[in-house]
Amino acid sequence: MSGIRWDAKYATWDNFTGKPVDGYLVNRVVGTRAFCAALEKARDKAESLGFGILLWDVYRPQRAVDRFMRWAEEPEDGRKKARHYPNIDRPQMFEQGYVATKSGHSRGSTVDLTLYHLDTGELADMGGDHDVMDVVSHHGAAGITKEQEKNREHLCSVMEDSGFSSYECEWWHYTLKNEPYPDTYFDFPIA
């Protein structure tokens, strides 16, 4: 689909656990049909603003969530702390709402994403990377530039106008309002 790229972070070593996560066997994203239809609308809206969409995560197997919970109990090794959770400890990711024990991602209609400039392919500056579990990632965060704030507003308007709702703690996280499986947490691997 033109105007949409992906980099499934949990299938790679570039995520807060520091290695590929259970259930992500390939670097691919999966979503419900309803999600994909809404994403096409979002892609068109983003394109009208000069942006494309980069997906980091959509469907997340429950086994990946279970792995996150086990990882949070492991001793801190410091490899990813400065980048992903600089001001909290691993268990606080759950307590503060950055990671859920039952993730909306496992229902297949939640997405972590950002925008990129169609003319250059460069990511839009959002004032923080994916999965930075800190107040700087919240909508309306203090300390980001006007450009970063505007880029976050562009992403929010694109997604909300396409039928998604935002999550106040993470500028990159959106859920389809009328998701088809609101009470189902799938666990099939992405292969």
UniProtKB/TrEMBL annotation:
Protein name: D-alanyl-D-alanine dipeptidase
Organism classification: Bacteria, Bacillati, Actinomycetota, Actinomycetes, Pseudonocardiales
Active site, per annotation: E170 (proton donor/acceptor)
Annotated site residue numbers, Transition state stabilizer: R60
Annotated catalysed reactions: D-alanyl-D-alanine + H2O = 2 D-alanine
Protein family (similarity comment): Belongs to the peptidase M15D family.
EC number in record: 3.4.13.22
Residues that coordinate or bind Zn(2+): H105, D112, H173
HAMAP family for the chain: A_A_dipeptidase
Needed co-factor(s): Zn(2+)
Gene giving rise to this polypeptide: vanA
Species for this entry: Amycolatopsis oliviviridis
